């Protein structure tokens, strides 16, 4: 089973930036869509961003559009989430996930392998 390890989280002031990475243990993720989700304290996990296997299609939640950018480097089995102009409400545990197909998807049910998550805390 593929293992995903997120990194890059931390504490940042509002308006700052962070870059999350999601490294996979297998090259096979190159054929699958990838997604980032987040769960804030006391809330349900929500979609953040998704990217197709080729990187040609990306989707974003309205709340992060224009501030976050998802990308991937299939040669490194890694997916990234560049987060700019961070807001207090972006505070959450961020998870990456492998899709069930090569397409990008906003639906949590379309993902079947999940990382352990990385904490992002934005101070106001």
What would you note in describing this structure?
It is built from no helices and 11 strands. It is mainly β and 124 residues long. Strands 2, 4, 5, 6, 9, 10 and 11 form a 7-stranded mixed β-sheet that branches. The chain has a 4-stranded antiparallel β-sheet with strand order 1-3-8-7, with no helix packed on it.
Set out the fold topology.
Layout: E1 4-7, E2 10-13, E3 18-24, E4 34-39, E5 46-51, E6 58-60, E7 68-73, E8 78-83, E9 92-99, E10 111-114, E11 118-123
Parallel strand pairs: 2-11
Antiparallel strand pairs: 1-3, 3-8, 4-5, 4-9, 5-6, 7-8, 9-10, 9-11
Q: What is the N-to-C succession of helices and strands? A: EEEEEEEEEEE
**Count of separate DSSP helical elements:** 0
Q: Total number of β-strand segments?
A: 11
Largest sheet: 7 strands, mixed
- What percent of residues are in strands? over 45%
* Termini gap: 39 Å
Question: Residue-averaged pLDDT, rounded?
Answer: 96
Which radius of gyration do the C-alpha atoms yield?
Answer: 13 Å
Catalogue the unreliable spans. Answer: none
User: Which class best fits the helix and strand makeup?
Assistant: mainly beta
> Considering DSSP H and I runs of 4 or more, what fraction of the residues is helical?
under 10%
Shape: globular
């Amino acid at each position: 089973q593929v293992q995903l390890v997120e990194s890059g989280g931390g504490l940042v002031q509002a308006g700052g930036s962070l870059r999350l990475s999601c490294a996979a243990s297998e090259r096979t993720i190159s054929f699958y869509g990838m997604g980032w989700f987040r769960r804030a304290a006391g809330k349900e996990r929500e979609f953040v961003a998704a990217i197709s296997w080729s990187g040609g299609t990306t989707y974003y939640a309205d709340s992060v559009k224009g501030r976050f950018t998802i990308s991937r480097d299939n040669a490194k089995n890694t997916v990234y989430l560049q987060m700019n102009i961070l807001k207090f409400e972006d505070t959450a545990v961020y998870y990456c996930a492998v899709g069930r197909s090569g397409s990008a998807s906003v639906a949590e049910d379309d993902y079947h392998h999940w990382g352990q998550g990385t904490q992002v805390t934005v101070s106001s």
